[in-house]
Structures are given as C-alpha cells and as structure tokens.
Amino acid sequence: MELLLLSNSTSDDGYLVHALEAIRELADGRQDALFVPFAGVTRDWDDYTAQVRDALAPIGISVRGLHREADARAAIGSASLVIVGGGNTFRLLKCLREQQLLAPLAERLRAGGGPEGLRYVGWSAGSVITSPTIRTTNDMPIVDPGGLDSLGLMPFQFNCHYFNLVVPGFRGETRDQRLAEFTVLSPEMSVLGLPEGDWVRVSGTRWTLHGEHAARWFLGERTIDIAAGALEMPR
Amino acid sequence: MELLLLSNSTSDDGYLVHALEAIRELADGRQDALFVPFAGVTRDWDDYTAQVRDALAPIGISVRGLHREADARAAIGSASLVIVGGGNTFRLLKCLREQQLLAPLAERLRAGGGPEGLRYVGWSAGSVITSPTIRTTNDMPIVDPGGLDSLGLMPFQFNCHYFNLVVPGFRGETRDQRLAEFTVLSPEMSVLGLPEGDWVRVSGTRWTLHGEHAARWFLGERTIDIAAGALEMPR
User: Fold this and answer.
1) Disulfide check for A113: which of A3, A117, A202, B12 has CB 3.0–4.6 Å away?
2) B118 touches B108 (CB < 8 A)
3) 3-class SS at B130?
4) Which candidate, B230, B231, B19, B205, places its Cα nearest to that of B112?
5) What ipTM describes this predicted complex?
C-alpha cells in the first residue's frame, strides 16, 4: 500500500500548500487523480473538486471528481491515484457504502501501489476512513452511515486535528477525555492523535510520521508522545 | 410529558447545584429517583450513581441506579422519576437499545406526568436522547449504537454545551459549521443550541427556556438567538 494520510488540508500558506511536496512524492509520476468529494456537505462537490484541482495544478496533477463519473465503481477500478477530501466523516462513509465502493477501493490499495497500482491521498475524514472504523472521528453524526466500519487499511485508529485544549467555561469533554472513553471500551485498539499540519506516509509495511508537532498514541490507559520519524504502534 | 432537560451537570457552585430548584419543582414531591448511568464510560456506574445521590440529597430525593436493578424494564415501568445522566451519547443509546428500554420509557413519558405518571430529568446526553435522533450530539462515536434514532419525545434536536468558539490554530469545524452541515442535509429539522447552564422545562405542550445565556435555533440557513422564556420552534 502507498498512502499519504494528512491531518488537515489548510495551512497558513494556502490550501494543501504544506503537503504539495509530499503529494508529488506519493504520486510518483501519476498525473491523473480521481477526487472523492463526498465528505463535503456545505460546499458544492464541483466547487470542492475545483479547489483541489487548483491546489494540485502547480505539481502537474489533474483532478476529476468521482461524483461526475457515470460508473463510480469502474472509475475506482481504473484510477491510479485517488484523493479523498475531508468534511464530514459520516457523510463520506455513507456515500462510499451506498455506492459499494469501500471493498473495491480497499482491495485495490491492498494489492499494492507499484507501477500499475493505485495510490491514495486523504486528509481529515479521508484519513480517518483508512482506520478499521470511524469511531475516533471528531465529526457530528449528521447522517447514519449504516455502520461505523470503514476501509480498515490501517491497524489503528486515526484522530485528526488532534489537540487537547481545555476551553474556559466549556463543561463538555476534552479531546483526551473523548479518546480515553474510546480506549476504555476498546483497550486493544491504538489511536494516533495526529496534530494539525502532520501526516503519515505509508509505504508497504513502513510508516513514517511527518510534521512539526508531536503526535500522541493512545492505548488502554497509556498515552505516548512521538516526534517525526519512523512510526510504530505501541504494544 | 413532564421533562427537565439540562445542557450540563456541573457548575461553579458544585455538581447539579445550579439545577437543584428546577429538579425539585419537576419532581413535584417524588422522593425516589431511578438513575440511568449508562452514558458514563470512564467512571464506574456505582460511583456515578453515588455522585448524583449526594447531589440530590439536599432536596430530599433518594437515588438508585438502574444498572443494579434485576429487571430494568420493570424498574422503568414502575418508576415515578427517571434521571438520565450525561457522558457519551452513543454509549447511552446503545445500552438503552440493547436492553429494549427506549420504547417503554418513551411510552410512559408520553402518557403524562400526572400524580401516577413518570417524570424525566436529563442532562447533556440525557437531554440529547429526547430528540428524534442523536445526530446533533457532540460526542465521539466510540461504540455503534445500532442506529441513531432515539426517544423522539421532542420534535426538534438538542445540541448541548452549545457555544461557537473559534480556536486559534484549529483547522477543524466550529460548532456552528457542524450544525450547518446537519441543517443542510435535514433542512426541515430544527436544532436548539443550548448553552452551558441553561435548560428547557417541558410541561405538556408548554416549553420554557431557563438560564442566563441566549440559546440559538438552527433551521435551514437561519439561526435565531432567543432569551429565557416561552420557547417556540421557528417556522
């Protein structure tokens, strides 16, 4: 598998600018990307696709939207580069499930990203769905996705936009409290809290964490902060 | 129906202290409360029940935990006051659904809260589940609740701990953006953003908003801020 999994899309320098070099490396010469805009809710899918198209033009990658394909399964079957944007994870999963795209996408990615193989870029919701389930999304369950299981490419859960902020006057749960609730009920499953601006590059069985901010593993009652570099699941 | 639906349980003065008078009024002489601790995840259900018991002792209400009842359905069937605490809304809904308590609870509450009738106090997750679904919860979907539909006592959705904070450096969605995603996909359904410290008292067909902070209705593309007083759904 060849995956690039970003925490988020925006940066101070502009949309996807912080990740352009990483996307170019992942693409490895591929120039035609299939964009999945299904996580977008308050934005038009054509507009969302155009935004990504504009962002990737400087690195010579053209972008077409999956929602405009007459046969979505065929489009997934023949693509060489799939890009899955963020938004609402429940909406994304619902659309992929309803169109029966989860299994074909996972199957092609697991088959490997060699010269003829499919490669994958995701951010936010697009990263979360590579986990076994979406049970560590931050998003509101605005639609019923028909089950929380997702692509299951990675053996751990992503939590994107990770930070643990205590907001004065707010009496709800902090992010760490929410993730602790997850690990109490699923003590065997690791969660990677991926801060804004960071990403994980998956190449075969090798995982590498990139970015300025320490990420945080959650496993059972433990948390482990890790810096950029080779990434291994805690045991 | 006689319901008291709080945004949250904690206050600067102590646990549930801000709501004691409202709970006393709602109870209307009832002295034996059945507490539903199922939303608690990182806390022991006995401890959670004890915390609520201690909090309500000053107003002469004794509290027993539903999780200690041999026959939960029978306990719901004979209770005169049910209190549903906050925590994780998905966990709460999953437990209620698995134990087949949703329909009996809703049925008794709809039958009315007269002298022989059941009355209800909820906060946070315990308020959210009185909505048609839990699709406007802030909680993480740490377990699969087997569907998002809930008690459906109220004709609108609650969003508790409501605030719309823009956190510097955070590139995820604000609360208003999340709720806008909901209303885009469900334009016919109103959402009430209930700030910390506020509550809604439901008495038959009369609803009253209490608390210091303006609440916010979300309906389609509109938002409407409302002060304490008689509450009506926007049209």
Assistant:
1) A117
2) yes
3) coil
4) B205
5) 0.93
pTM over 0.90: yes
Distance between CA atoms of residues B59 and B53, nearest Å = 10
> Is position A161 annotated as part of the catalytic site?
yes
**In angstroms, rounded to a whole number, what is the distance separating the alpha carbons of residues A103 and B158?**
35
Burial degree of A164 (CB within 10 A; 0-12, 13-18, 19+): middle
Q: For residue B17, what is the DSSP state?
A: G
User: Among the CATH numbers 3.30.565.10, 2.60.40.10, 3.40.50.2000, 3.40.50.880, which is that of A2-231?
Assistant: 3.40.50.880
Residue to mutate among B11, B160, B171, with most A CBs inside 10 A, is B171
What is the model's pLDDT at position B35? 98
**Residue reference for tokens 């962002």:** A55
* Contact residues, chain B to chain A, C-beta under 8 Å: 8-10, 41-42, 87-88, 91, 124, 133-144, 147-148, 160-161, 163, 165, 167, 169-173, 177-182, 184-186, 196
B81-112 pLDDT, tens digit per residue, is 999 999 999 999 999 999 999 999 999 999 99
Q: Count other Cβ atoms within 10 Å, centred on residue B194.
A: 26
